[in-house]
Each structure stands twice: as structure tokens, then as C-alpha cells.
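Appendix B.2, paired examples.
Example (i):
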Amino acid sequence: MGLVEAWGGNAIGWFFAHLIEAFFNFFYAIFNPGMWLSWIPTINGPMETEQKEALMRFIYYGASVEFFFVVLVIFLTVTTIGLINNRFMWGCVRGLEGFANAVGRVAAWAGLLMVIQQIVIIFMQRIFAVAEISIGFGATFTKDISWWSEELKFYNAMIVCLCAAYTFVQGGHVRVDLVYSAISYRAKRVVDMIGSIVFMVPAAMIIWLYGWFFMWRHLVVPNPSASDTLERLLTKARALRWNIETIGFSPNGFNAYFLFKVLLVVFVLMIMLQAVAFLYRSYLEFKEGPESEGKFLDKDQLGDATAELVADIH
């Protein structure tokens, strides 16, 4: 649209120019998906020139100023609707918290899988003295014992990254309540709102900016850089090809470490969504009073009085 070039001489003009252009960018991306999504059918396969350029656009805009303002506009629009219609905002809270709970409850089973796999490894290695483990019926998946041993770290990463937002919803993170515990109910909600905007969102944004390009540097070559302009990335697109990281720490060890980079990006996305849910919940509980505390909150029941007490203290 050219507004940034026309108004970008000062900070205020730059901000509002990007804010207005975000509407155009959003609808342009929606109605022209081929310009940034046509590479998806070719994941880890050969690409045409147009698909390479689309992938470079996706990489560039995934951590760009333009993308930030599109997200900001969506957030402001949803928030405005929620302020007018509190039922809509409660719906957003329930949807976002439900998503975090669903992902976390599924990912938490990785802990059990990790324990079972470790037991199998010990039995197969120490008792049966085999060098490989195969799983599957008909078509089997066979890997060296060291591969399965190193893969245990991936389960641990899944629990940390995919259960962080779930743990937050459940109130499982340890808090330092030197000030928080001594203030009134509505003051606590104000602290929560400020914390979600001032601490959670900026921290998540910084990790996203680093994690996004960190992930793609282990998936494609030439390596994209955060300092590259779109024009430079499109120039690099001519030599672009998939180069998914398959190097392990040992010759026969786990060779899918790119999944850790993907988990980092997913982790940040879920934390960002939970920050929005926490902001909305804090505002609604502030507005509606103490009787709305924990409203629609889907917390797990531990079934043990002592464990419930410990969870409440934390």
C-alpha cells in the first residue's frame, strides 16, 4: 500500500501505517495462499521456482514486522468484541484454555511412554544383549539401542514444551507471592493482566524471533537469516532446497533433532495463546468480582486431599 513509506518518518506514523496496512496484508494473504503456502506438498522433496519463493516468503513473514501487526490487529479486534460482549470473551477463554488442556493432557502421556521405553531398553540391552529394537507389525521400524536411548530426550522435550501452557491453566507453576498474596482480589487481577502483557507476551515474542529462524536453519539451505530482507531471501530461493537435520550425537544415535526446534516454536505459540487467555480471564474476573474466580476453569481432580492441598499452595 505504501503507507509505511509515506508515514514512516516518525514512530507514531510508522506504527499507524503498519496498523492500517495489516488489514490489507491479512486479506491479501488469505486470498492469495499460493504465494506463501504452495511449498507444503513438496515438504522434503523437489520444488519448483515458484514454490521455493513461496517458502522464502513464508519464512520471512513468519517473524516479520508485517506479521506482528497482523497478529496485533487480530488481537485488538477480538479484544474489542470481547469488551462489548463478555460472553464472547468467556468463549475465547474456554476455547484457549481447552486447547492448552487437550494438548497438555495428551503430551503428558509421553512421561509414561518414556518410562516404559527405558525399561524395555534396559531389559533388551542387559538381559537379552541385543543391539537393535524393532517395533511394528508387518512393516517394522528398527533402530539401534543407542537411537532409542537418545530418543528419550525428545519425550522429555515434549512434556516441557507441550505441557507448559497446560500446567499454567492448572495453576501448577510455582509463584513468588511476597506481594501478590497480601493484596486484594481485584488488585491481584490487575497484577495478572499486567503480568500477561508486560512479561509473558514480550518474552514469548523474543523466543519466537530467535526460534523461528533457528528452526528453519535446520530445515533448508541456504540458511535464512533474521537480518535478510525479503528481496535477498527471494534471491536465495533460486538455490533453495530441503536439508532437514538428520545428524545425531553418535553414529547410530537419535537423528531427528530438528523436532526439538519445531517444539520450541510450538511452545512459544502455546504460551502466547495462554497469555491472551490469562489476560481475558483476569479482566473478566476483575469485572465480575470474586464470585467469578475460576469460572469455567477445567482443572484436573487429583483425587488425593494432600496432593490437592499442595497444588493449591503452589
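Example (ii):
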Amino acid sequence: MGSSRMSKSLSQIVLPVAGGTALALSVALVVANLDYGRSKISSLEQRVEQTSLQAEAARNKASEEAAVVAELKAKVAEIQLAAIENATGGTNLTENAPRKDIAYGLGRAALTEEITAWDVDVLPDGRGLPEGRGDVFTGEEVFAEKCASCHGDFAEGVDNWPVLAGGFDTLADKDPVKTVGSYWPYLSTVWDYVHRSMPFGEAQTLTPDETYAIVAYILYSNDMVDDEFELSHENFPDIEMYNTGGFVIDDRPDREYTRWRGEPCMKNCKSAVEITMRATFLDVTPDEGGESRMDHTASENTPTFVASTDSTNTSVETETLEISALETDPAVVLAGEKVFKKCKACHAVGAGAKNKSGPQLNDLMGRMMGSVDGFKYSKAFKAAMEEGRVWNDAELAAFLAKPKAYMKGTRMSFAGIKKEKDLTAIIEFLRTTSN
């Protein structure tokens, strides 16, 4: 009886305790599930937000790339349009390239000294010239040392090297003599070329002062300045070249290009081409002077370019010595013949001698000045002939010593013979020359 009541009491105590524990566990489980759900939801919300941000960034990037592509397409279309306009003559091809305000992010800005090192060109008005000066006398010495081996002591040219002086009033001839004096329109071209490219094999070794001096001597050789002239960066723009007005602006892009720049014809071309004539140059500067001519001939023959000199010229040396042996010292005549090499580029002597850029000098002694038939003399020599002036030892010595001082206005581009013994020798040689 007592035992039965005890069991009932225990069961009444245990059941409520067990029920409370289960309830507590259930509540804890529910709370745990709620926390997990909230965490999961928060995580999902964060992922959704990140995905949205990434999608927005992708859309922005795609939009930017689309804008770049559109800009590039527009530029390609612009370039293609410009190319079409050029091909059809719609653009003046002599215009400067347009400036583009585009930064490509390459390289760096050039330093001032780097630009200066490359900016060496000289413009016709003198812009770009360095400070400096040089006179004719100094130029003659520098020219003789650095330039004469190719261009001659008096700018007359050696072999096939260019002649730099003379040639005035020949540009309309069949065979014009294009020199610095007769042809070049701007003195800046002379200065720039000499300073940048000369001497041959030693380019850019000349100082500015040496360049000014050489250019001054070239001007003097062309009878454009007197022997006391000094060229400098200050008076450079004042020099006007002989042929300044002989050039015109190239208007072919506007006048001609539209006629033939377009789609080329690639059909119905000529089936065969036949060569019917040839013209060949073999010697453009004959060593012995004389008149040059171009041979035109049929294709079956081989044309040649020859100097139409008289073959009897080869006997000048022997004949000269034979004559001089009777009248004067052969050694002096021979020395004078060597000095005369300075004159051979412009003057001829001996049998069959003809006028060149200067008159032939046979039978010079006792001859009236300016009297050789067929030669176009300067006004100074024409005046001397009208005065009845005659060549003799004294007159010839004074002239050869300093031609431009003796005969103001002469076109003879020769600085003069400095040594007395050379003057004596060449006069004795000229005394022996005759047809």
C-alpha cells in the first residue's frame, strides 16, 4: 500500500521534469533554426547584392566599350573618306597634315636640346641660321682646303663634280649650266647644304663661321659680291639670288591631278611596246673641253655621247713647246702650261680652240680686248673694246692678278693668281698659243 503510493508520487514528479526538458529542447531547436535561417537569408541577400553590382559593372563596361568601338568606326570611316577624296583629287596634296588632338600615352615630350639638335634647317628668310660670319678672303682659303679637290680652286668643277660658278644667261639654252649663281633661287639652300653635307666624306665638320666664309666665296665666284664682302647671320636675308624669280609654286595638284588620279584602267592595254630610239650619255664632262652633243640613233645601233673636239687638240703641248723653244725658256713655258690648268675649265688654246664659258685665248698678245668673234662679252669688256684697249704683258698681268678689281663688272669668276712667278709663267705660255 505504501509502496504503491510512493511509485505514484515519483511518477508525478518525473513526468513534469521530463516534459519541461523536452519543451526546452524544442524551444532551443526552434530558436537555432530561426538564427540559421536569418543567417542564410542574410548571406543570400549579400550574394544577390554582389551579383547586382557585378552586373551593373559589366553593363557599364560594355557601354564604354561600345562607345570606343563606335568612335573607332567613325574614325575609320573618316580615314576612308579622306582616302577616297585624295584618290579622286578632292584634297590638295600639298597641304600640311591636319593636327589630331589625341594623346596615345606613348613616349615623352622632347627636351629642348633634343629638338635643337634636329632643328638644323635654314629658311629663305634666314630663320634657323646660327650666329656667325665669314669673309671672302677666309672663304677662299677654306674652300681651297676643303672643297677645291672636287669643285676646283675657282668653283669651276673638277671632272664630273658640279661647277658652282658661272652659267649666267644659259638657262634658256639647250644645255644650260645650272650653278649656284645661275640657278639656285635661295641662298639658304646653299648654306644649309654646305653646313649639313659638306665636305664630301666629312659632313658636318664645318663650323658656322667656316660655312659663312665658304658661301661668301661662292657668291664672290659668281660675281655677286666684291672681294671685301663679309657674310653673316645679320646680312644674310639681304642677299638676293640671280634666279629668285625663276621658280613658280607647284599647282599641279589643283590643275592636273584631278585629270588622272582615279580608278586606273586595267584592260585593253597596248599589246606590245617597241623601242625605236635610244639616247645614251657616256661622258657628260669631256676632259679636254669642247662642245658636247647627244647622239640619237635607231635601236639596232648603240649610241654614244662624245665631245666634238678637234683631234688636233692633242698636239697642243708638243706644238707649244716647239714654238716656245725658239722664243723663250721652255721650262718657264712648261710651268705656265701647268698654271693654265686653272683656266682650262673656261678657256681653250691651241689648234681648233673654240669659245667655252670664256673666249678662246689663241694669239692673245696684241689682241684687242673683247674682240673674239661669237663670244658674248660683259658690258665691261665691250666698253674696253670701244676704248681700243689691247692685251699686253702689263695689262694681262694686272688682270690675272685680280680680275674683278682690274675689270669692274667682268663675269669671270676667278679670284686671281697670287704668285708673281706663276703670273710670269702663264703670260709666257699664252704668248706661245696660236691656231
